[in-house]
Amino acid sequence: MATVLPIPRPATAVSSPRPMPELPQPPQAVAVRPADPAPYALTPERRALLDTLRYAEGTWKNGSPDGYRVLYGGGLFDTLERHPEIVVHQRYTSAAAGAYQFLPATWEAVARQLGLSSFEPHNQDQAALHLIERRGALQLFDRTGLNADVLARLAPEWASLPAHHGGSYYGQPVKSRQELVAFYDSALARHENAG
């Protein structure tokens, strides 16, 4: 917790026959929660990969921050203080939520490992990169870019990604490699031009 020091008030002159005008007070110090750790650098390539995962998972929302508040099935939840843990019954039943559709148990484990205190976008990004690394795909991606091997390593984590055979690891609908690589290339160009 941040220490808040008292702000000294301006002194008034005792010998002055007329009152001193009141001086505006400086703003009070506000305790700010320290930022959560960020163990994974966000290069333009990694940002483009994260955008591509959001696109595949149906949470891209044209890059809107609302994508970080998406429940399974497309509804939105209100607060990013924590994983919402809302079970949705549609074609499948799932409590997946956020930009990368984290299941509650997955989020809880990764948040504990990384010391993440909220479900805010920057923490979701870090957690997704951790899952990518855990699947043995982050260093491969950093070396080779988005290709069939990277997608296949990530397919067990994200059902919307194609395995080597081109279909879902779980038998669910997937985006094609070509569509994902084209989206990635476009996202990478956007991130490179932005900064």
Describe the structure in your own words.
The protein is an all-alpha fold and 195 residues long. The protein has a single domain (44-194), classed as Lysozyme (Orthogonal Bundle), CATH 1.10.530.10. It has 6 helices and 2 strands, in the order αββααααα. Strands 1-2 form a two-stranded antiparallel ribbon. It is globular.
Radius of gyration: 23 Å
Number of helices: 6
Instruction: Give the tally of β-strands.
Output: 2
How far is the N terminus from the C terminus? 33 Å
Which stretches are low in confidence, meaning pLDDT under 50 for 5 or more residues running?
1-32
Strand content: under 5%
Counting helices, strands and paired strands, the structural category is mainly alpha
- The side-by-side strand order for the widest beta sheet comes to 1-2
Multimerization state: single chain
Domain count: 1
Q: Could you state the order of secondary-structure elements as H and E?
A: HEEHHHHH
Determine the mean pLDDT: 87
CATH architectural name: Orthogonal Bundle
Main sheet?
2 strands, antiparallel
CATH level-3 fold name? Lysozyme
